[in-house]
Design goal:
The strands form eight sheets. The chain has a four-stranded antiparallel β-sheet, with helices on one face. The chain has 428 residues and is mostly beta strands. The protein is globular, with a radius of gyration of 27 Å. The longest helix has 22 residues.
Length: 428
Amino acid sequence: MGRRRDPDLYRAPFPLYTVQVHRDTGLVITAGGGGASKTGIKNGVHFLRLERMGGQVCASLAHSFDTETRATMSLALGGDVIAAGQDASCQILRFKEETGKPEIKQERKTQGKGGASEQGPRKRRVGGSQPAAGDGDGMNETQNKTAEISVEKLGEVQTDFSDDGLQKSVRFSGDLSFLVTGGADGYIRVWEYPAMKKKLDFKAHDGEIEDLDISPYNKQVVSVGRDFACCVWKNDQLALGLHWNENMPSIPDKMYRYQACRFGKVEDNREALRLYTVQIPHKRDRKPPPCYITKWDGRSFLPLLTQPCGNEVISCLAVSDSGTFLGLGTVTGSVAIYISFSLQKLYYVEEAHGIVVTDLAFVPETQHGRELVGDHEAAMLSVAVDSRCKLHVLPNRRSFPMWFVLLLCALMIVAVVLFLQYTFPGFL
């Protein structure tokens, strides 16, 4: 762990602000841009295809969708639908991956002198009857099927009414029945999906909403804002206000503010649920105090564990599918992976990016995801304002089988007994 610059997985022609991985297709969807300023920097959503080649993961651009004069600052996936936060609006997009018509090529083989063959590729029209491979006319045919991605605009709603006009966060519910947005005006807005009809509209924070998340059972929405508050909402009613430092009297209430929040599963316990929050210093000093991660019970919302996570200011948070790992990005470009059980650091790259890390996403724990991860425990993507997308892999932790541990304990007991007999002959 430490300062090392891994090669870029992908570099976009514009700053990147958000990244997601589609579970079913494995496509990486990342977006950003230069906004409405006339600097020549484009705005768009890029679809990347990941493949494992030669023991390494490579990315190729599968499709580029132009978002014209607006940069996508926040993004959520609901099946094949993208909710993209652009300025004060949320644009709803649907993407489709289709296998294009096969391109059929013919290769004519002519026998030359000395038994050598000369090959001349020639394109043929698709359709009609085709001779089988190995026919007497000397023709061999190959098919090249390419998957094409198309993007369709479904609609758009205004989700923020502040002077800055900025949607800060967006999330789909687990059953895709509604969509929740939070903006710079401090309001949470709940939209029925797919009709995108506004269901709830209420003031949640004094000032900007930094982040929000929906519990897996759609019972609560948790939001964090610049007003030092972390709130649990049931519909538009405040159910609970969380206080991470209530058992830490040495930390005043206004010294830290919440930066991010995410729900997570508990591995091997389907009934349990966890909530993770990140707290960062409200004021930046020459010698900055540490940031903190807090793990909460996701049902009772009681704090379970709080641990410091370094002096670099945290900018974003991600949780793996199983809830085993947490990802942290910082404003100085560093990336870290923690284990959720003890909130201990397992992986760290100082200044992996040249500037603030804007978003993180773990590779899904699907068959395709496991093929990409290979012999590693987990893999996580990070994007930043430096236009780079990087892949971070967590090596397998060294472990010993249970039989080996028991055998070692037995040998230690035997060694102690022999030592006592040799040192004190009459003791045993």
